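Extended Data, panel c. Modelled sequence:
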Amino acid sequence: MAKYWYNVQTHEVEKDAQSGWQSLIGPYESRAEAEQALAKVRERNELADAQDEEEDEA
């Protein structure tokens, strides 16, 4: 089964990791999931930042 990767340098989805690992986020099961990679990273970063703020306030 093919895997999909998001390339942070070209901002394109790659099927079966065509570029070097330092440029890729993934793997994802579908092209649609890979297209949302940056949104997921942003969401996870925001959650982590919120948790850090909560810990700092405690």
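The helical segments are 31-35, 37-57. This feature is highlighted in the accompanying rendering.
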